[in-house]
Amino acid sequence: METPIKREATCEQELAAIRDSLEILGGKWKLRIMRYLNNHIDEKNTFKKIQREVEGISAKMLSKELRELEINLLVTRTVMETRPVTVNYAMTEYGLSVFPVTETLVDWGLNHREKIK
Amino acid sequence: METPIKREATCEQELAAIRDSLEILGGKWKLRIMRYLNNHIDEKNTFKKIQREVEGISAKMLSKELRELEINLLVTRTVMETRPVTVNYAMTEYGLSVFPVTETLVDWGLNHREKIK
DNA sequence: GTTATCGGTTAACTAATGGTTACCGGTTAC
DNA sequence: GTAACCGGTAACCATTAGTTAACCGATAAC
């Protein structure tokens, strides 16, 4: 993971940065998949395993989301010569940079559940 | 803003927390609106002013998003007895808790723009 | 009287998201 | 032989998200 660099930005630049982030990480599933991979970084993460653990995602969506994450260099896809053939998905070094984002969302979500209880 | 509380959660609970967060903060506009309000916390933020500064949002979307943020107690809506009548939107105390989320997204977006350059 | 601003609403529309079902070839376990 | 698991894809459909344009009453400026 990289050293966080403090930046200065105008409000306009900040809003544009949020837009950029959401273009790549937005939607219902991508951050959940990234968090799952982050939590299982030393394991083999096959398609089916991810699908079982990211609750509710369909094969179609998982396939699409993983492809998009791969295009943006956040995830790698490796076909393993096992029998039957399995496919391993893993976070890239760059993918690790998403961790703080998922972390704040986890914190907020847990806190919110407490709050509305 | 509240003191961050360290929590322990299983991966499953973490993914559920992300789902919860995205249900309330997800979509194209909510986090941008929240960031804008956070950056202008001591000012009067009228409907039109927000619409001008959150670039690209239509009146319909802004109206809808503000209503949802209000329902979730993140924003207040106050009709001001000016002439013409203006409406002021402001972050609640609870709304401030969203700051870390927007902060990590701003950082990630700025960093990403550097990276792909 | 005309135009503009304020804070929206409404209707009509398109684009994006996401779900469901069925199916593919190959492999293994029974 | 049959069923199940692996990693998907294809077709179809429904829902949601989001856009555009027109319009509202009230007020104010010219």
UniProtKB/TrEMBL annotation, chains A, B:
Domain HTH hxlR-type per the UniProt entry, residue ranges: 11-117
Coiled-coil regions listed: none
SUPFAM superfamilies found in the cross-reference section: Winged helix' DNA-binding domain (SSF46785)
Pfam families per UniProt: HxlR (PF01638)
Keywords assigned: DNA-binding, Transcription, Transcription regulation
InterPro entries referenced in this protein's UniProt entry, alphabetically: HTH_HxlR, WH-like_DNA-bd_sf, WH_DNA-bd_sf
DNA-binding is among the record's keywords: yes
GO MF terms, alphabetically ordered: DNA binding
Taxonomic superkingdom: Bacteria
Name of this chain's protein: HxlR family transcriptional regulator
Organism this protein belongs to: Pedobacter ginsenosidimutans
